[in-house]
Amino acid sequence: MRHFHAVIRRLCILLPLIALLASGCTTVTTQSFRASNNSSIESSHIAVGADFGKYDRLYATDMGIFFPANAAPSAADQERTRRVFREAFLSELTDYDIVREKGPTALEVQASIIDYRNASGDSLPQMRREIQAMAKPGALLFLMELKDSQTGEVLARAADSASAPAFSTSDSSATDWTTVETAAKRWAGLFHQFLDENLNQ
């Protein structure tokens, strides 16, 4: 198992400052992030003041899946996609202690696929404001967020859009599970690198 202790100190030197908005259900707060320039992932950000020293395990949550209301795979396909990604990530992250319960030393991992390749206008689902700013109509985004598992505070984000799995969006098309599995393996590998670069220096 890899440990997270004393790993963020170099980030404060390496990462330039940017700002992102984080919104709750009834209140809006401002949170600042530092953007990583040395990651193989398209974009990655660490919250200013984030202290990863207390975390020694990852709390894995179910994947979030977002599609336009009029171009979404079936519930069965979405559930199978979650299983494919979970298996890929569990296979890739064997050197991290992954748990299914929250705790004071558990860092929550939330993965999401936001597929807006067929999105337009009012067909977009509701999501947090800062995620809306990242997900654009016409594009696909894979997003990983690291949070404090007890408070829900977002401590880091990583996003990538290079892989493009072929999901079923109507009765006339079928999900290409080979491309889904390929994308899952690729993103699991990229996320592993993101963790190694930012949490194990």
CATH architecture: 2-Layer Sandwich
Report low-confidence residues grouped into runs of 5 or more. Answer: 2-29
* Structural class designation: alpha/beta
C-alpha termini separation: 15 Å
Q: How large, in whole angstroms, is the Cα Rg?
A: 17 Å
Give the strand content: 25-35%
- Total individual domains: 1
| Relative helix content | 25-40%
CATH class reads Alpha Beta
According to CATH, what is the topology? Answer: Double Stranded RNA Binding Domain
Describe this structure in a few short sentences.
By secondary structure, this protein is of the alpha/beta class. The protein has four helices and nine strands. Strands 1, 2, 3, 4, 5, 6, 7, 8 and 9 form a nine-stranded mixed β-sheet that branches.
Description:
By secondary structure, this protein is of the alpha/beta class. It has one domain: Double Stranded RNA Binding Domain, CATH 3.30.160. 25% of the residues lie in helices and 27% in strands. The protein has helices at 11-14, 75-92, 129-134, 177-199, and strands at residues 17-23, 28-35, 43-47, 57-60, 64-66, 98-99, 106-115, 140-148, 154-160. Strands 1, 2, 3, 4, 5, 6, 7, 8 and 9 form a nine-stranded mixed β-sheet that branches.
